[in-house]
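User: Is it possible to get a 3D structure for a protein together with its bound compound? The compound here is 2-acetamido-2-deoxy-beta-D-glucopyranose. I've pasted both below.
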Amino acid sequence: MLITALLSALALFSPALAVSINNTLYIITNAETPSLDRPGLTPIGLQRAQDCIPPIFADLNLGLIVVCKPNNKTGACIPANDTAAPLAASLGLVPDSHCGTGDDASDACVGNTLTKYAKNSTLAILVVWDSAEMDDLLENLDIELPGGDDDDDADDFTTHADLLLIKNQKQTVIETSMNCTGIDGTAPGDF
Ligand SMILES: *[C@@H]1O[C@H](CO)[C@@H](O)[C@H](O)[C@H]1NC(C)=O
Ligand SMILES: *[C@@H]1O[C@H](CO)[C@@H](O)[C@H](O)[C@H]1NC(C)=O
Ligand SMILES: *[C@@H]1O[C@H](CO)[C@@H](O)[C@H](O)[C@H]1NC(C)=O
Ligand SMILES: *[C@@H]1O[C@H](CO)[C@@H](O)[C@H](O)[C@H]1NC(C)=O
Ligand SMILES: *[C@@H]1O[C@H](CO)[C@@H](O)[C@H](O)[C@H]1NC(C)=O
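Assistant: Yes, that's possible. Here is the predicted structure of the complex:
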């Protein structure tokens, strides 16, 4: 009885549509932020947004950048928006932030946005999302992080701003580091 009830509860909350697109999808979170909700990015965060992220994506054929909706009043998603801005400017793209954020966000919005875009374009897509909302984003896109089904995996994004998820047609999701010179440590094999 209990198990049946649990299973149907789980079924209720499982995401209705998994995004199935052929476009390569990249997902990152906001760059480093100061403590205590003070605004902006830290100097390291600025360095990541301005100097590291634009070259990473310069040649990856991005056609769409989706960002959670920045809210000047609550401060939500301002860091994610600030993280995406230099890259967007360098590529001449205007980030799509119509999906809202946090409680304002519709669960299906990002998935629908990606699916709609994929109908019309094969270019790659980058999603830049608030680290605190990463759990929900991944769940809504039905993306499983490598290394299992532990719900807490997305917590890594709140402590590690360098994480980069890559999903493409042929592979399961890859979790890697941006490897920003000087701020992300040394990759194995580098000197
Ligand atoms: C993805 O590509 C395959 C062929 O490689 C095609 O059959 C399929 O319809 C495509 N899916 C979408 C959602 O575009
Ligand atoms: C929010 O703040 C940013 C930066 O200060 C400003 O550029 C933008 O116009 C503001 N947006 C709204 C809706 O007030
Ligand atoms: C979000 O970033 C864009 C540039 O991509 C900028 O024009 C806009 O003012 C930013 N919004 C807020 C609320 O900071
Ligand atoms: C698809 O792309 C064409 C040409 O770029 C554009 O005119 C059209 O509005 C796009 N359709 C959708 C649904 O985005
Ligand atoms: C970061 O470095 C690791 C280890 O060298 C490598 O496997 C990975 O592909 C690199 N990530 C990127 C985005 O280049």
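The longest helix spans residues 43-57. The pocket of 2-acetamido-2-deoxy-beta-D-glucopyranose (ligand 3) is lined by residues 70, 72, 78, 81, 85, 88, 95 (CB under 6 Å).
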